[in-house]
Amino acid sequence: MTSKTSKTRRAAKPSSSSVRVAITQMACSADVRANRAKQLHLLEKAAKGGAKILCTQELFASQYFCQSEEHRFFSLAESIPGPSTDAFCKLAKKHKAVIVASLFEKRAKGLYHNTAAVIDADGSLMGVYRKMHIPDDPLFYEKFYFTPGDTGFKAWKTKHAQIGVLICWDQWYPEGARLTAMQGAEILFYPTAIGWHPSEKKQYGKAQHESWELIQRSHAVANGCYVCAPNRIGHEHVLGEDGKPVSKDGLQFWGQSFICAPDGQVEHRASVDREQILAADLDLARVEFSRTHWPFLRDRRVDAYGGLVRRFGDEG
Question: What GO terms describe the biological role, i.e. biological process, of this protein (predicted)?
Answer without folding.
Answer: putrescine biosynthetic process from arginine
